[in-house]
Design a protein that fits this description.
191 residues, mainly alpha, two-stranded antiparallel ribbon, 6 helices, 57% helix, 12% strand
């Protein structure tokens, strides 16, 4: 039971759950501050807790002797706390937490897009053998100097230079170019 409880607590501290919990708590704190006479202190406590991830990142950056945006954000939070601007400090914490949540989402989407791009790459290539025929080999076995045939409609399995012929190549997955690009002898090919 203890191990499961520890695992559950640690899962709450990971993105995006941590950010969602902080956002909900800060919004509840804003509501409590408006409704309760002593709600200011509750909002202050929630704001301090909500600032902890930013302060941890700022501390890590300073230990590595570098300035990061988290250092400047922490400075802004400290000034807001020191001047007694509880609502301002809570609002700054809310905006930083939303930004962290959006950053997590962007990172996740980028990771998925890169994985999808890697799945587009063929696993085999048709390589010219010493006898002059072509044999399918794993892409990892293709070496610099090998001659590879790319058939019509097939994906380019490895980077290289066109040695024979010409073709219209769809480079959209790599370059974003929506129209096929004409490739002739001497042109680079990107897999």
């Amino acid at each position: 039971t203890g191990k499961r409880w520890y695992t559950f607590r640690m899962s709450l501290l990971r993105s995006p759950r941590r950010e969602l919990i902080i956002i909900i708590a800060l919004l509840a704190g804003f509501g409590a501050q408006s409704l309760l006479r002593d709600g200011k202190w509750l909002l202050l406590g929630i704001a301090v807790i909500g600032c902890m991830p930013t302060m941890w990142r700022a501390g890590r950056a300073l230990r590595q002797r570098r300035l990061s945006i988290d250092v400047f954000n922490t400075f802004a939070l400290i000034v807001a706390f020191a001047t007694g601007e509880v609502r301002s400090s809570a609002f700054i914490a809310l905006m930083l937490t939303v930004a962290a949540l959006l950053g997590w989402n962007t990172e996740r989407r980028t990771h998925r897009a890169l994985e999808a791009l890697l799945h587009l790459k063929p696993a085999v290539a048709k390589r010219k053998t010493q006898s002059g025929s072509f044999a399918e080999v794993p892409v990892d076995d293709v070496r610099v100097g090998d001659i590879v045939v790319v058939e019509t409609g097939a994906r380019v399995p490895v980077d290289g230079i066109v040695m024979y012929g010409e073709a219209q190549v769809n480079e959209a997955p790599v370059t974003g170019e929506s129209m096929p690009v004409k490739k002739v002898v001497g042109d680079p090919m990107v897999s």
